[in-house]
């Protein structure tokens, strides 16, 4: 069941991206290079993807929402597994695991279709042959 609205998802995207970029300094793991780089790179990627997504928070609107959500799930799983994939789990793993699970969950539980009615385009409301007689 999808219960997260697209507008709220957009806000979450920008907040998560900023949080991930700041996480090494907020949570004190700047001395662990792999943990720092994974958080910063995924944070920058989330913000970049959000700017280019065709949703309420997008600016350029080139990436379809369904693609954005699939990438969210993939990136979340990579982020959650990154302490073990990149070998820093014995030093630090909490924020990566928690934020990764939340990122994947946001991808799974966000409504993909727009919640606003699409405006009708003029000239597409009927047959071109309407009103003609034979």
Written description of the protein model:
With 134 residues, the chain is mainly α. The protein has one domain. It is built from 4 helices and no strands. Helix 1 packs antiparallel against helix 2 and helix 1 packs antiparallel against helix 4. The chain is elongated. It starts with 5 loop residues before the first helix and ends in a 25-residue tail after the last helix.
Which descriptors would you attach to this protein?
mainly alpha; 4 helices; 0% strand; elongated
Short description:
The chain has 134 residues and is mainly alpha-helical. It is 58% helix and 0% strand.
Total number of helices: 4
Helix content: 55-70%
Structural class: mainly alpha
Order of SSEs = HHHH
Number of domains: 1
Low-confidence stretches: 126-130
Radius of gyration: 20 Å
Cα end-to-end separation: 52 Å
Q: How do the helices and strands line up, and which of them pair or pack?
A:
Elements: H1 6-26, H2 33-52, H3 65-85, H4 94-109
Helix pairs in contact: 1-2, 1-4, 2-3, 3-4
